[in-house]
Design brief:
The chain has helices at 2-15, 47-51, 55-66, 84-99, 121-133, 153-171, 207-219; strands spanning 22-27, 71-76, 106-109, 112-114, 137-146, 176-181, 238-240, 249-252. By secondary structure, the chain is α/β, with parallel strands linked by helices. Strands 1, 2, 3, 4, 5, 6, 7 and 8 form an eight-stranded parallel sheet that branches. It is globular.
C-alpha cells in the first residue's frame, strides 16, 4: 500500500509539475464520530488505515519531495464550525501534523450546508483564525447549500444569505486564499434535488448569485446600481464556480 501511495503521488505531481499550484493531498480522513476531546482525533477505519496506518504522513512527505513549490492541503467536510466535534477533530489532526513537522500548507473547508443546518458566520471566522495561528492557509473548497424546503422564496433567501456569509468569512480572514462553489447550475449538482447552487437548471442567476456579487462589490468599493449583473473584479481571493484547477485528490479517500 505504501508503494502504491508513493507511486501514485509521484506520477501525478510529476506530470502536472509547474501547472498546478495547490493539491488536495489527503481527503476526508477523519471519522464522523470522532469526539475531538482533549486534542484527540480518530481516523476512519478503512483499508488505508488498516494496511498503512501512517499513510497521511507518507502522502504529504512524498508530495513535498516531488514538488517543493506546490501548496499541500488536507480537505474535509463538516469542519467549518457547525459540528464542534468534527471541527475540533480535523483541527487536532492538522495541528498534530504541524507539531511533528509533516509538511502541510493549508486546510480545505468543504462547506456543504443545508438550509436547516449551517454554521454561524462567527464560528467560520473563528475556525479560519485557528488555522492561521498554526501558520496555515484555508480555502472554502466545495460550497453548496442544500434547500431542504425545496424551491421556495424563503429557502432561496436563506441560501443567498449563507453564500454571502461564506464568501464574507473568507474575505474577512487574511489566510483564506480561495472560495470555490461546487458546481454551476442546479441540474448538474450532486444535490440536484436540493437546488443547492447559485444558478438554476437553466443557468439563470438565483438570489445566491446576487448575494455573492454584492459582497464582492462591497469589498471592491463598487457602488451599488440598479443593474445587478455588473461585473466585479476580484483582486486577491480566488472565486471559482467548480472544482478549482489547483486542487485534485492524491491520497484521496472517497465518500
Amino acid at each position: 500500500m505504501k508503494n502504491a501511495i508513493v507511486d501514485h503521488i509521484t506520477t501525478v505531481l510529476t506530470h502536472y509539475k509547474g501547472k498546478i499550484d495547490t493539491w488536495d493531498i489527503v481527503n476526508e480522513a477523519v471519522d464522523d464520530w470522532s469526539s475531538g476531546e482533549n486534542g484527540t482525533f480518530q481516523l476512519r477505519d478503512n483499508f488505508l488505515t488498516r494496511e498503512c496506518p501512517d499513510y497521511i504522513d507518507i502522502a504529504f512527505k512524498t508530495a513535498r519531495e516531488v514538488d517543493p513549490e506546490v501548496k499541500l492541503y488536507y480537505n474535509d467536510y463538516n469542519n467549518e464550525g457547525l459540528y464542534g466535534s468534527k471541527t475540533d477533530s480535523v483541527y487536532n489532526l492538522v495541528k498534530d501534523l504541524v507539531d511533528r513537522g509533516v509538511p502541510i500548507d493549508g486546510v480545505g473547508l468543504q462547506y456543504h450546508l443545508h438550509t436547516n443546518a449551517y454554521p454561524e458566520y462567527e464560528k467560520v471566522v473563528e475556525t479560519m483564525r485557528r488555522y492561521a495561528e498554526l501558520g496555515l492557509e484555508v480555502q472554502i473548497t466545495e460550497m453548496d447549500v442544500n434547500s431542504v424546503e425545496g424551491k421556495t422564496e424563503e429557502a432561496f433567501a436563506l441560501q443567498a444569505k449563507l453564500y454571502g456569509e461564506g464568501l464574507r468569512a473568507c474575505l474577512d480572514s487574511p489566510n483564506c486564499t480561495g472560495f470555490i462553489v461546487w458546481g454551476v447550475g442546479d441540474s448538474n449538482s450532486w444535490r440536484s434535488n436540493g437546488y443547492p447552487l447559485a444558478f438554476d437548471a437553466n443557468y439563470a442567476p438565483k438570489p445566491a448569485y446576487y448575494a455573492m456579487l454584492n459582497v464582492l462589490k462591497e469589498y471592491n468599493n463598487v457602488e451599488e446600481s440598479d443593474d445587478q449583473a455588473d461585473e466585479v473584479d476580484v483582486a486577491d481571493t480566488t472565486v471559482d464556480a467548480d472544482v478549482d484547477s489547483a486542487e485534485e485528490d492524491s491520497a484521496d479517500e472517497q465518500n
